[in-house]
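Appendix B. Raw example, untouched.
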Amino acid sequence: MKATNLSFDELIATLAEEALRRVLDGHTRRQRALAIGVSGPSCCGKTTLSRNLCKVLEELGNSASYFPLDGFLLPRDERIAAGLSGYDPRSTRAGEMVDTLRALLLEERSVLVPLYCHETGCVLRPGERVEPADIIVLDGIASLGNAVWEHFDVEGLFFHVPKEQAIERRTEIEVRERAFSEAKSRGRAETEWRAYSEFVVPRMRRARLVLEVGATWDSFDLHENAADRNPR
């Protein structure tokens, strides 16, 4: 597939149509539900896209559930004490995440998902209840990580954003929403980009679709990923 210069609404409609085609291939998956993993750099729009995709799928008469993976991050103070970036897989409580996904995807049980507060860096419990559905949208970089891929079949969507554009976006959002100074925000963004390049970018090969974000964040190109999608 290839679609260019899409507006956000057109992008969501295209992804919903593609998801409905893929949901029929359940016999080829380890789990019945279609799991869509949305990955990419911080502040690029993963959550907005994921929630809107679920909303449109529901409006089309399909069952869809939003599953935020950030809730399985270690609290920020623990990551800082350990010298870990949030992009580092060791920052994720992988065992709890896999157990929760197993209950939802394989056992088809309702689950409680902890929520991560980006303002405070704390994990909030009991969190948000997620129900079994035909389509589960996994929001977060862990969706294409080893812990998830070793246990479940995931259709990946990867936000591809140029370095400077991603750093500017993260700096802008942290200044506006987290009350950081611009200098502190940019420094954090540049440091985190190095970790992102090390731990997340190599997982882009696992995505079936790549989303190229326009320079002004209001247009999108969507295409099949030509990379080797070997899950290892």
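End of appendix B.
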